[in-house]
Design a protein that fits this description.
heterodimer, A: 330 residues, alpha/beta, Rossmann fold, 2 domains, 8-stranded mixed sheet, 4-stranded antiparallel sheet, 25% strand, B: 337 residues, 12 helices, ATP hydrolysis activity (chain A), membrane (chain A), ABC_transporter-like_ATP-bd (chain A)
Chain lengths: 330, 337
C-alpha cells in the first residue's frame, strides 16, 4: 500500500444548469500523504470547495454529481462503495471542518448532544460513554470548563469557541483525514492563529492528514506541507510548499503570490494585479484558462495543456505561454 | 496644515434593555472616549478585532449613529449635534463606502441610478449633466461608460466595489470612510481595488479613514494607523513605526498573529489567551491586562489610561500592563506632566 491516505484521480464534477451540465471541477488529480497537510488554494469559484465536497459525496443532489474519476481512500475507491459503507467512512474516518461555525452547528441542540451524536453513530459507545468522551474532546481542543460548556447552546459561545466545537466534532472519532474548508476565514486574526496552531497540534498528536482549503496564502504557508493551486476547475500547479512559494512555475501561481500586499513594500506603492476576472463557468475553454483570462483569442485555446511533472513532486500545467520556464523533464 | 477632521473624546454607548418594562439595564460601550485628527489627503487606518468598535466609530463620523458624547469637528465646524437639515450640505464632504458590494448596492436600481443618487440629493446640475457626470465617474473607476445602464447583478464582486467607489466619490468629498472595502474580495481583485483607491486619493486629494481587520492591507494604504481595543484607541502612530516598533502589548500580539506568506518564516508568536472582554461589562482596569492576566492588573483599576505621546507622533495608552517597564515610566511621567 502506498503512503498516501487519499488519491484523487481525474475527478470531474458537474452541475446541472439551464445550459446543461457544467463542469465545476474538470479533471483534478492530487494525493494526500499520510500525516501531512495538503493545501488547496485559489480564488472564489475555482472549484476548491466542490472538490472537497466531491470527496465526501456532499454535493447538492440531484444538481451536482461526480461524473468520473476515482477517490481512493486507503486503497479503496469511495465511489464504488454503497451507501452504508460510505456512511461509516464519512464523519468517522473522514470528517469536515466547515467555515461558518454558526451554520455548521445546530442552534437548538446542546453542544454535548451534537458531539456525542457523531460518537454514537460511528462507535459502539453507550450514551453515557459518548457524553464523557465529548467532555474529553472539548478539553483537548482547549475549551475551558468543558463539563459546563457541554450543556450550553452554540449561541452562548464566541466565534472562536464555536469553531473549536466544530473542530471537536470533526475530531471526535479520531479520523484519518480531515477536510478543513476555510476553517478560519470568519475569524479574527488572533483567533485564527490559535485555531491554526490547534489544528497543527492535534494533527501531530493524532497523526491524521489534513486537506486545508483556503484563499489565504499566508494560512497555506503556515500550515501546509504540500500545495495544490487551482484555477477555473483545474489544478494548474502542485508541489511542496517551499517549491510553490520559492520557485513557482505557472504564471497564475506567480501572479497570485505577487498580488499579496507585503508588509515590507513601501506604502501606497502600486500592487501587482491580475487583469480581468475568472470567466463564468459556462464560458470556459478547453485550452489554458489562465490564457483565456489574459485575453488570448479563444480560437487558439482548443487543446488542454498536459499536466506534467517537471521535477520530483512538482507538477504543472504545461502551457507554453504561462510557463516562461520551459519544463526540463517534458 | 490644519486638520480636516478632529474627533474629541467621542463616545457611543448603546442602551441594553431588559425586563418586562424594557428598562435600561446597562449599556454597550462600543466607542468609549476616542480622540484623533485627520489631515487633508491623509489615510488613517483603523484596525482591531471584531467588536472593538471600529465600524461603529466610522458610522458615528457620518452621524449614521448619534454619538452619546464627545465632539466631531469637520473643518473646524462642530457637526456632532448639528440638525440633519444643516448637516445635509456638509454631507458632500464626507462619504462612506461599505464592505459588502452585494448588499450596499440596491439591486433594483441601475448603476446610473445608484451613482446618480447622491448628485440628485444634492441637486447638482441638470438631469442631463448629472447623467454625463455618472459616466465620467464610471470611467474614472475603471468601468466602461456603458456600465451605467446595467444592474448590479451583472457585475463581479470587484466591479461592484468599483461602483461603490464611483458613488462615494460622486460629490467630490474631502473625506471617505471606507469600512472593510476589500475584505469580501479575492486577493487579485483586492489589489486592483486598492490600486484604484490609492490613485483616486492622489488625484482628488481625499482623506481616507480605512477600517479593516487585514493588517497587511491597512499597512499598505495608511499613513498613520490607530489600533482599537474594546472601544478605545490603544496606540496611534505612523504606519511604518507601528508595524516595525509597536509599543503596546496588544499591537504586538496582533502583528505577531498575521500569517506570513512565506513557509520558511520563523514565527515568534505572542499568544493571547482568552477572549476580548464584553463591552457591556468591561473590566474596571486595563482591558488588555485583564485578558492576559497581567500581575499588575490590580494597579490599573480606576486608572485613567489616556493616550500619551511617547515619541514624536507616536501615541500609546499609558497602561503598565501593556508597556515595557521603560515605556511605562516614560508614559507615567507624561501623564503627570
Amino acid at each position: 500500500m502506498s503512503d498516501n491516505i487519499l488519491e484523487i484521480k481525474n475527478l470531474v464534477t458537474e452541475f446541472k444548469t439551464e445550459n446543461g451540465w457544467l463542469r465545476a471541477v474538470d479533471g483534478v488529480s492530487f494525493d494526500v500523504p499520510k500525516g501531512k497537510t495538503v493545501g488547496i488554494v485559489g480564488e472564489s469559484g475555482c472549484g476548491k470547495s466542490v472538490t472537497a465536497m466531491s470527496i465526501i459525496d456532499l454535493l447538492p443532489k440531484p444538481m451536482g454529481h461526480v461524473k468520473r474519476g476515482q477517490v481512493v481512500f486507503k486503497g479503496r475507491d469511495l465511489r464504488q462503495l454503497d451507501h452504508k459503507e460510505y456512511y461509516k467512512i464519512r464523519g468517522g474516518r473522514i470528517s469536515v471542518i466547515f467555515q461558518e461555525p454558526m451554520t455548521a452547528l445546530n442552534p437548538v441542540h446542546k453542544i454535548g448532544r451534537q458531539i456525542s451524536e457523531v460518537l454514537l453513530l460511528h462507535t459502539k459507545m453507550s450514551k453515557k460513554e459518548a457524553w464523557q468522551e465529548s467532555i474529553r474532546v472539548l478539553d483537548s481542543v482547549g475549551i475551558p470548563a468543558p463539563d459546563q460548556r457541554i450543556n450550553e447552546y452554540p449561541h452562548q459561545l464566541s466565534g472562536g469557541m464555536r469553531q473549536r466545537v466544530v473542530i471537536a466534532m470533526a475530531l471526535a472519532c479520531k479520523p484519518d483525514l480531515v477536510i478543513a474548508d476555510e476553517p478560519t476565514t470568519a475569524l479574527d486574526v488572533t483567533v485564527q492563529a490559535e485555531i491554526l496552531d490547534l489544528i497543527n497540534k492535534l494533527q501531530k498528536e493524532m497523526g491524521m492528514s489534513v486537506i486545508m482549503i483556503t484563499h489565504d496564502l499566508g494560512v497555506i504557508a503556515e500550515t501546509c506541507d504540500e500545495v495544490v493551486v487551482m484555477y477555473a476547475g483545474r489544478v494548474v500547479e502542485r508541489g511542496d510548499v517551499h517549491t510553490i512559494f520559492k520557485k513557482p512555475v505557472h504564471a497564475y501561481t506567480k501572479a497570485l503570490l505577487n498580488s499579496i500586499p507585503s508588509l515590507d513594500a513601501p506604502r501606497k506603492s502600486e500592487l501587482s494585479t491580475i487583469p480581468g476576472t475568472v470567466e463564468g463557468i459556462a464560458d470556459f475553454v478547453e485550452g489554458c484558462r489562465f490564457c483565456q483570462r489574459m485575453s488570448v483569442p479563444v480560437e487558439q485555446l482548443t487543446e488542454r495543456p498536459n499536466f506534467i511533472e517537471i521535477e520530483k513532486g512538482h507538477w504543472v500545467e504545461n502551457c507554453p505561454t504561462c510557463n516562461s520556464q520551459r519544463p526540463a523533464m517534458a | 496644515m490644519s486638520d480636516l477632521l478632529e474627533v474629541n473624546d467621542l463616545k457611543m454607548h448603546f442602551p441594553v434593555r431588559g425586563g418586562i418594562t424594557m428598562k435600561q439595564v446597562g449599556s454597550v460601550k462600543a466607542v468609549d472616549g476616542v480622540s484623533f485628527t485627520v489631515k487633508p489627503g491623509e489615510t488613517l487606518g483603523l484596525v482591531g478585532e471584531s467588536g472593538c468598535g471600529k465600524s461603529t466609530l466610522g458610522k458615528c463620523l457620518l452621524r449614521l449613529y448619534e454619538p452619546t458624547a464627545g465632539q466631531i469637528d469637520l473643518e473646524g465646524r462642530d457637526i456632532t449635534r448639528m440638525s440633519q437639515a444643516k448637516l445635509r450640505p456638509l454631507r458632500k464632504d464626507i462619504q462612506m463606502m461599505f464592505q459588502d458590494p452585494a448588499e450596499s448596492l440596491n439591486s433594483r436600481f441601475s448603476v446610473r441610478q445608484i451613482v446618480r443618487e447622491p448628485l440628485d440629493i444634492q441637486k447638482i446640475g441638470t438631469r442631463k449633466e448629472r447623467d454625463a457626470m455618472v459616466e465620467d465617474l464610471l470611467e474614472k473607476v475603471g468601468l466602461p461608460r456603458s456600465a451605467a445602464d446595467k444592474f448590479p447583478f451583472e457585475f463581479s464582486g470587484g466591479q461592484r466595489q468599483r461602483i461603490g467607489v464611483a458613488r462615494a466619490i460622486a460629490l467630490n468629498p474631502k473625506m471617505l470612510v471606507l469600512d472593510e472595502p476589500v475584505s469580501a474580495l479575492d486577493v487579485s481583485v483586492q489589489s486592483q481595488v486598492l490600486n484604484l483607491l490609492v490613485d483616486l486619493q492622489k488625484e482628488l486629494n481625499m482623506a481616507y479613514i480605512f477600517i479593516a481587520h487585514d493588517l497587511a492591507v491597512v499597512k499598505h494604504i495608511s499613513d498613520r494607523v490607530a489600533v482599537m481595543y474594546l472601544g478605545k484607541i490603544v496606540e496611534l502612530a505612523d504606519s511604518d513605526v507601528i508595524y516595525h516598533s509597536p509599543r503596546h502589548g496588544y499591537t504586538k500580539a496582533l502583528l505577531s498573529a498575521i500569517p506570513h506568506a512565506d513557509p520558511s518564516y520563523e514565527k515568534n508568536r505572542i499568544r493571547l489567551e482568552g477572549e476580548v472582554p464584553s463591552p457591556i461589562d468591561p473590566p474596571k482596569g486595563s482591558a488588555f491586562g485583564h485578558r492576559i492576566n497581567h500581575p499588575r492588573y490590580d494597579e490599573t483599576v480606576g486608572m485613567d489610561m489616556k493616550l500619551v505621546e511617547i515619541a514624536s507622533g507616536h501615541w500609546v495608552a499609558a497602561d503598565p500592563c501593556s508597556l515595557t517597564e521603560e515605556d511605562w515610566q516614560k508614559a507615567k511621567a507624561l501623564v503627570s506632566a
